[in-house]
Amino acid sequence: MSERRAPFVPNPVLGGLLGICPLVAAANTLANGFVLGVGAALSVALLALALPSIYAFVPDRLRAPSSLALSAAFALLIGTAVEAFSPVTARGLGVYLPLLAVNCVSLQALRRGPPNSDHGNLDGARRIGNASLLVEALGYAAAATLIGALRELAGAGTLSLPLPAGQSFLLSLADESPAPLFAAPAGGFILLGSLAALYRIATRGRGRKKA
Amino acid sequence: MSYIGIVVLTVFGANALLSYGFALCPLARVRGLVSLSALLALVFANALAAALLWGLRTLVLRPAGLESLDLLLFVLLAVPVVKVLFRALARESGFFMRLSAAADEILVSSIVFGIALVSARSGYSLPEALVASASSGLGYWMAIDLLGALRERLELSDLPRAFRGAPAILISAGLMAMALMGIDAIFVRNLAG
In this structure, is residue B142 part of a structural domain? Predict the structure, then answer.
């Protein structure tokens, strides 16, 4: 079955409200949103690569715990890389970096497991399944970065990104914080709710056209 | 901080859902009240997981300087132990059987992992970590129940179409989180010691 979809539609965050836990609490800067989004996408990509081997060599009963342990190991790797690249961002994200292991987008990849085919074309099914997972993960990363950027703009009036060797890029757009509420989880909820409503308005036409 | 202070702080000020944003995915479909067995499973699973992670970090990982491996060891040791314990209890009584079924779903979610990590990394003693994690489960239940009830009322109101359902619930959660923002550690320390 061939399925044609516009990129990032349906978006797992704005359309499906998947994996929104860290975005509401910790994605209050562009850097945090970017790291959370790319970290989750990377974790899904690594799981998509590793799960077929787990399903091939690990007995049924041990598949779920070993997949979860693998996801935790990937989260640990990503956390260590972030800590090495930007300790400030790692400190800002706190427990949300290890929690990439149980991010709903990664858990969805774990629950689905490697795609099977009823028609014997396992490689083809695997390619389509992995591609759809990766598109979803990229959509997650894009939404997480957008939410982080909007919250930093509204909350602090700046946009900042850490660069290698302790440098950072900072764009200051306002002298003082326009609405500090958006840096707090309460603002995260309100922004995410508003974006989800806007996303519905923007994608409503697509549903009607299909029908 | 006193035990009452820890309970007040974790239920209101540092609420698992409204402040930490743990396990938000059910928010999109929550409706009405959550069952008592789900609440008890959540409280037991949180307390057990937090106690195990606290033990792992304090007794094994900290002396070896390997605290960053806490999540990996937690997944490998604590999750199976909590699962086995719930299943053993489920064999004893029907009540625990219902708890075990609910706990299986809860156990692999950000709420149990997140609360266990926060409790273990907050510098609490074991009894404090137990109280904090159990009351975090209570706080989550309170928030999700309030939002479930709110959703039922919102369905009867004349909201713009785009805001119906999950967007309205998220904005309501934001307003509720704003109301609880003032209850922080300093306020609780003054209030309850």
Answer: yes
Q: How many domains does one find in chain B?
A: 1
CA separation for the pair A149, A144 (Å, rounded): 9
Min Cα separation A67/chain B (Å) = 10
Nearest-neighbour CA in chain B from A92: distance (Å):
13
Q: Which stretches of chain A sit within 8 Å of chain B by CB?
A: 16-26, 65, 68-69, 72-73, 75-76, 79-80, 95, 98-99, 101-104, 107, 181, 184-190, 192-194, 196-198, 200-201, 204
B45 within domain boundaries: yes
Identify whether B104 is part of a domain. Answer: yes
pTM, whole model, 2 decimals?
Answer: 0.84
Nearest to B76 among A22, A69, A75 (CB): A69
Place of tokens 């137990």: B130
Q: What is the pLDDT of residues A23-34, one digit of tens each?
A: 998 888 999 999
